[in-house]
Every structure is written in C-alpha cells, then in structure tokens.
Amino acid sequence: MKCGQKKVWLDPNEVQEISVANSRQNIRKLIKDGFVVKRQQVVHSMSRHNRQMEAKRKGRHTGYGKRKGTMNARMPFKVLWMRRARVLRRLLRKYRDSKKIDKHLYHELYAASKGNQYKNKRVLMEAIHEKKAELNRQKLLVEQAEARKIKAKLKAEKKASKTKKERPVTEEA
Questions:
Q1: CB 91 within 8 A of CB 109
Q2: Do 118 and 127 contact (CB within 8 A), yes or no?
C-alpha cells in the first residue's frame, strides 16, 4: 500500500477474517475486497496562510513588534546599492550609446554615481541636463568671445588701413 501504519484502515466488521490472513496473498485479497483500505491524505489548507500573505502585501502585520532581524538583515544595504548602481549605470550607458552624452561626460558622471552622489535615476537625469546646459553655455560664450575677437581684429585692420591711406596725404602737405 506504500504508506505508514497510521494510514491503514481495517474494517471493524471483518475483524475475524482479517485476523485469519497470514500471507501477502491473503492481504492482497483483503485490499481488493475493501476490508483493508489506505486512508486519504489529511487536507492541509493554505487559505489562512494566503489570507495572511495578502494582508502583508498591503502592509499589515509588519510593525516593529513583528520584526526579528535588523534592517540590514531584512533588506541588505548591499543589495539596495547594487540595484541602484545598476540602474544608474544602465542609464549612463544608454545615454552614451545614443550620443546624448559624450565619453568624457559619461566618465565624469560614472565616477560621481560610484561616489554615491545620485540617490536615484531622476536625480541623475537632472544632473545630466544641468551639465549639458552648462557645456552649451560655455560653448556659446567661447563662440561669442571668438566673434568679438574677430570683429575687433577687423576693426583694427580697417583703422590701420585707413591711417595708412591718410599718412601719405599728410606727408605731401
């Protein structure tokens, strides 16, 4: 029957016939006749457990009194750090591959994220936008300075050529 003694049921009305059985063949016959039966598995319901877990998912039963481990034991800081680092690095990689940031800015931001400067993706994205705006502003200022230099140079050349033209006139007089 492949079960323990607890699971075997003997028919109380057929005690006489069961007690006479002294061989495997006789026992098989008793099983076939239904005088010796394997009891059913006792039900182990998960309904109470499922109900409890459903409540836990909503945040019930998780107060200070229900906690045994430290905060680090319940959710390791290292795991949180790894998740955050992977999220930030994935974003930086994506931005670099799509040419939104150049390799120099990528390296700078990568090092900063490793140094725990950005607590989440949103903060990192804001930092990227600020840095890009700063770089564009710097580029614009450099271009304006160059334009001013060229303009001043042209003005100086024009003035010099004008004075050259006027000098011979003054010498003749």
A1: no
A2: yes
Question: The tokens of 138 are what?
Answer: 């710097």
Positions of E strands within 18-124? 36-38
Query: What is the DSSP code (8-state) at residue 118?
Result: -
Amino acid at 47: S
* pLDDT (tens digit per residue) in 62-113: 999 999 999 999 999 999 999 999 999 999 999 999 999 999 999 999 999 9
In eight-state DSSP terms, residue 40 is P
**Cα R_g (the chain), whole angstroms:** 44
Q: Which residue has the tokens 């690095």?
A: 89
Cα distance between residue 144 and residue 142, in whole Å: 5
